[in-house]
Specification:
Oligomer: heterodimer
Strand order of the largest sheet of chain B: 1-2-3
Number of helices of chain B: 21
Largest sheet of chain A: none
Radius of gyration of chain A: 30 Å
Distance between the termini of chain A: 63 Å
Structural class of chain B: mainly alpha
Number of helices of chain A: 22
Shape of chain B: elongated
Largest sheet of chain B: 3 strands, antiparallel
Distance between the termini of chain B: 86 Å
Strand content of chain A: under 5%
Helix content of chain A: over 70%
Helix content of chain B: 40-55%
Strand content of chain B: under 5%
Chain lengths: ~400, ~575
């Protein structure tokens, strides 16, 4: 505040910090540098009682500034990071890790690897034990880079294989990377957490070397172990693996069930619905209807022709069979107040017709069934379709007229 | 003298003492391992001890340093400050006569009371002063380390010395020696009665000397010059000679981490004047710069207000008697007279005058502005009438710009200097490493700062805001006329405004709660707040201080009417 006449070191630096924050938020890197230059002398003062000390502030702010500032070079950045590593032993591994991330973002894979190796060999009394988690991460990322090298070797090998050459050296190198990678990746995924990239890579390695059992176990653990945080991707990876393995529909369906619960709008819901629709079990077909309706609740799916065609197909099928009409009623009940404006407005009718005839066809079918032949959407689209003399639209009109279920309104 | 052994080398009995207290043979300069425990103080003060090394007084522990006392340090500080003031235009008398005498007086009054040393030492200390603080000038200073035991820091000294790393806990302080001889002694609790010297007090000394000489620098100006770096204060130890090493508790004494506060310096000065038993200060008459009439003129100019307002300030000053010599002149020890803050007083007078003429109730002044604007539009001859609204807009704009600059400057303030300080020798290397890192980072980010304006000290100036009559945009209001708001009654010019609102009906007891009134922005009109804010910026003090003085003036002004419990509207509450 302007009337803060009792100015002292601490307040002055607090003010300085708030100017830096403003500058950062507005991406004014020069101005941030200006104030940061004045802030750094905080390092010479004892802040042991504060929650976040100046050394951490300077590390984080300095990183941002140097990363974005137009006149800053990678060399300067690296130099700065090295200085930051010496500033706080309790943070050493964290700083190393973040440095590695930046190097990777800049495409400097080799430097990143060197830094990881260096960090891995770091020992500092009891700090080593305290920073165990960070160490595991460092090892995991090194494992990841080993995987990357393995992958490169693999591609070389495949190329040579095509040409008819066999390269023992490359092959051995490849196996070497595999071993190094596998060891570290395996370790990290034991710890509860979100390790998508590590899991994917590890599974890739296992599959290549034919260890499908281990892969299956890893994926199951990742998806179903309650200690791990709920992660939709875990289920996706499992599903994809099972699919690759040619597993039964039953196990594929069970893999996707939880995904539907967590992320009803997931793109795999189409596959899910498709499998469920075809099922002989009534419960499964019922679930299928639920799944596809739920997916279309989301704005991202509004223009998804495939999704609409799934719904249309299932609804049409139910109508024709005249069995389980109550399913539709149940699903429509909670949606009849807002789906008409959300999906079936006159504006959307026009737009859909202009942009995507198939989409409008499927939607019109659904609209006609759910809202009747007098609804705006159906009327407009079917009229346009008939005008354009498209056969299927005439068929559509006939179908809806025939099956005009009054009870749904 | 009592050592009668024969020298191992030359068999003579002709001994002297080295600096380290060891005996050496004068004939062959053979140094023995025998040391002499100096207990007899007469020996120290009376004998002329020949030393081997004349120029260098190397103490093994101090490693290139010499012994020095805290008061010597302060003396150096005062000397530097006085020199700086001289460079700013203050007469040389201040340094050579006034300040020096005040300091000597202080030393006498305080040293004789607390000093554990024998009376002989007092003489020594004073003689150091006379030799204008060149510490090296006396090569025959005896070692007093034997007299004072090193672990004298008993009691529990709080050392939240911020220069040390987290290592500086209380336990450390008892084992860390200070660079000065009496650093740890200095901070012991029972010093209160003796008015222990502190850094802010150096400014009190300066101000006292300036006041004695009636120099044209107010306390707020002095403090502003300090913050702007024209007067050494922060990191003043940079100017200490190389040999005066600071460490341990010296840091707590000489290193400041906050700016001096007006109240503190002001109050200490008065305490000091009493402590030193000073007589009545030289009279502050109406030709002095510090007289309200003079200061009002200056502030009116700086605030871009019409010169004509000066008549009004003089009238108010006269009416309530604050221009009287006896009121303005400082008489230490006289508890019945109010301690006068000349700058705050003058600012407050202006505020009262503005209230008298413009009411400042967030309505009337704007109304008057409308009339003035109308009149100025239609009638350009005879000079413009003062338009409060226009004035407000012009001044607010400048004020906002300056305030913003000031806020940024404060945020960018650099507190550390090149000379590093270590609390103890133990953390010296850590401190140096940190310093190096700071310098590296400053270089790195300094380069990225774009157009780096070198932090050059602005030239010291008495005026922070200046307005030129030559500006054709009409942004200078000095020559504007108050005709539009005045009327003639019985031959006297009075304000058209018939009303006045008091800031407070009852004054608080200053001795009990420290203030005459308690200012809260929301309880007062915005215009009043703005005017307080303007002077608050100029004087670099809290608006509440000015508000206090305004209350005081108002109560003097309306004294009779208040006693009669009249029907005037009192505090305007929103």
């Amino acid at each position: 505040s302007s009337y803060e006449h009792k100015l002292n070191f601490k307040k002055s630096k607090e003010a300085c910090l708030s100017y830096i924050q403003d500058a950062l938020l507005q991406k004014q890197w020069k101005r941030a540098s200006e104030f940061l230059t004045c802030y750094v002398e905080s390092l010479e003062k004892d802040y042991s009682r504060e929650h976040i000390g100046p050394s951490e502030m300077i590390w984080r702010i300095g990183t941002e500034v140097l990363w974005h500032h137009s006149q800053s070079s990678m060399k300067e950045f690296n130099c700065f990071m090295e200085q930051m590593k010496t500033l706080g032993v309790k943070r050493y591994l964290k700083v190393c890790l973040e440095h590695v991330f930046h190097l990777l973002c800049n495409g400097q894979i080799d430097e990143a690897y060197q830094n990881l190796s260096l960090a891995e060999s770091w020992r500092f009394g009891e700090q080593t034990a305290i920073q165990d988690k960070e160490m595991k991460l460092i090892q995991a990322y090194r494992g990841l880079l080993d995987y990357y090298s393995w992958s490169k070797q693999k591609n070389i090998l495949l190329e040579h294989g095509e040409d008819g050459f066999s390269d023992l050296a490359v092959e051995q190198e490849m196996h070497g990377y595999f071993r190094k990678a596998a060891v570290n990746l395996k370790e990290i995924i034991k710890i509860p957490g979100v390790w998508d990239v590590f899991v994917k890579c590890y599974v890739d390695l296992l599959e290549f070397y034919g260890d499908h059992n281990e892969a299956r176990q890893v994926l199951n653990e990742y998806a179903y172990n309650s200690k791990f945080p709920a992660n939709p991707n875990a289920h996706v990876y499992l599903y994809q693996f099972l699919k690759r393995q040619g597993e039964s529909k039953k196990s594929l369906i069970s893999a996707l069930k939880i995904l539907h619960d967590i992320v009803p709008s997931h793109e795999l819901m189409i596959d899910f619905n498709t499998m469920l629709q075809k099922s002989k079990k009534r419960k499964k077909r019922r679930l299928g209807l639920e799944v596809i309706f739920a997916a279309l609740d989301y704005a991202g799916w509004k223009a998804n022709a495939k999704a609409w065609s799934c719904l249309a197909r299932q609804v049409k099928q139910i109508l024709i069979s005249e069995k389980h009409l109550d399913w539709i009623k149940q699903e429509w009940n909670s949606r009849k107040d807002w789906w008409p404006a959300f999906h079936f407005s006159r504006y959307l009718a026009k737009r859909n017709w202009q942009e995507n005839k198939s989409l409008s066809y499927e939607k019109a079918l659904v609209a006609g069934i759910l809202l009747g032949k007098d609804c705006k959407y159906f009327k407009y689209v079917s009229h346009q379709g008939c005008k354009a003399q498209l056969k299927r639209f005439r068929m559509l009109k006939k179908f809806v007229n025939r099956h005009n279920p009054v009870y749904l309104r | 003298r009592d050592f009668n052994e024969r020298c191992a080398q030359c068999s003579e009995v002709n001994w002297g003492l080295t600096d380290g207290g060891r005996f050496y043979c004068r004939s062959c300069h053979n140094v023995t391992e025998r040391t002499r425990e100096v207990v007899n103080t007469d020996f120290i003060t009376n004998s002329r001890v020949q030393t081997i090394s004349k120029g260098l007084r190397k103490q093994e522990k101090n490693d290139g340093g010499c012994e020095w006392y805290i008061c010597e340090g302060f003396q150096l500080v005062l000397k530097k400050q006085a020199e700086a003031l001289e460079a700013l235009g203050v007469c040389p008398q201040m340094k050579d006569e006034i300040l020096c005498n005040f300091w000597r007086c202080y030393l006498q009054k305080s040293k004789q009371a607390y000093c554990k040393r024998p009376a002989g030492e007092t003489v020594k200390a004073l003689s150091v002063c006379e030799s204008s603080t060149d510490v090296d000038s006396d090569p025959e200073r005896p070692s007093l380390l034997h007299l004072l035991s090193l672990s004298e820091s008993e009691g529990d000294l709080q050392t939240d010395c911020s220069f040390a790393s987290s290592v500086s806990k209380v336990s450390e302080s008892t084992s860390v020696r200070s660079g000065s001889v009496d650093g740890s002694l200095y901070l012991m609790k029972n010093q209160k009665e003796k008015l222990r010297m502190t850094m802010p007090m150096t400014l009190s000394f300066c101000y006292m000397a300036l006041l004695w000489l009636r120099e044209p620098i107010t306390l707020s100006e002095l403090l502003r010059f300090v913050v702007e770096g024209h007067i050494p204060y922060l990191n003043v130890f940079q100017h200490f000679p190389e040999k005066m090493k600071l460490c341990g508790l010296d840091l707590k004494i000489f290193c400041v981490e906050s700016w001096p506060v007006y109240e503190e310096v002001f109050n200490k000065m008065h305490e000091l004047a009493v402590f030193l038993d000073l007589p009545r200060f030289p009279d502050i008459t109406d030709s002095c710069f510090l007289h309200p009439d003079m200061l009002c003129m200056k502030y009116l100019m700086e605030a871009n207000l019409p010169d004509e307002l000066h008549n009004w300030t003089c009238r108010v000053v006269k009416k309530i008697g604050i221009g009287e010599v006896d009121f303005l002149t400082l008489t230490p020890g006289n508890k019945s007279t109010r301690k006068v803050k000349y700058d705050v007083l003058a600012a407050a007078v202006i505020v009262v005058v503005l209230k008298l003429l413009f009411l400042l109730d967030d309505h009337y002044e704007w109304l008057l502005s409308e009339y003035a604007e109308e009149r100025n539009k239609n009638n350009t001859e005879g000079g413009p009438y003062f338009d409060f609204k226009k004035w407000y807009e012009v001044v607010k704009q400048s004020l906002d710009v300056e305030q913003k600059k000031l806020d940024e400057e404060r945020a960018k303030y650099l507190w550390r200097c090149e000379k590093p300080l270590f609390y103890s020798v133990k953390n010296k290397s850590k401190v140096l490493k940190r310093r190096q890192m700071v310098v590296n980072l400053q270089n790195q980010f300094g380069k990225l700062s774009g157009s780096v304006k070198c932090a050059e000290k602005p030239n010291p100036s008495s005026f922070q805001l200046s307005w030129s009559e030559e500006n054709t945009d009409g942004s200078c209001f000095h020559g504007h006329s108050l005709k539009g708001i005045l009327q003639e009654k019985c031959g006297l010019l009075t304000a058209m405004n018939p009303d006045y609102w008091l800031c407070t009906v009852k004054l608080c007891n200053e001795k009990l709660c420290g203030h005459l009134a308690h200012y809260r922005e929301v309880e007062f009109p915005q215009s009043y707040h703005f005017v307080l804010g303007l002077f608050s910026f100029l004087l670099r003090i809290q608006p509440s201080y000015i508000h206090d003085e305004v209350c005081m003036i108002e109560h003097k002004l309306f004294n009779k009417k208040l006693c009669k419990k009249l029907k005037y509207n009192t505090v305007l509450r929103k």
